[in-house]
Design brief:
This is CBS domain-containing protein. With about 120 residues, the chain is of the alpha/beta class. It has a domain of about 80 residues: CBS-domain, CATH 3.10.580.10. The chain contains 5 helices and 6 strands. Strand 4, helix 5 and strand 5 form a beta-alpha-beta unit.
Amino acid sequence: MKLRETFLQAVVLVQAEDDAREAWLAMNRKNAPWVAVFEGVRPEGGRLVGLLDGRDLEGALAPEVFVTAGDLAAGERPSRRAIRLSPDGELEEALAQLGLAGADAGFVEGRGRPPGVLVR
């Protein structure tokens, strides 16, 4: 089965220099459980720094804390998820790739459909 035929969770794309609280707000506006943090000129063409979920963003919600999405995405767990998967790839191969990287999720590029996150 191809990745484009599987259920993918919604994801918001942000830049590494964006405020983590803004990333959290964008995630909630779209009702997406994931934030993909990219470094580069535009999110889809840049380097994937990591994938953040709500637990990763919890510490940045205090008003006295300023942290960028890139700082959080560089952490151990989010950076292990920095795996770009092709929507044309096979599901079994993608799951094996996530397992080898020790990641619980990976970013599936959007070609002809919105990008998403594959969760193991």
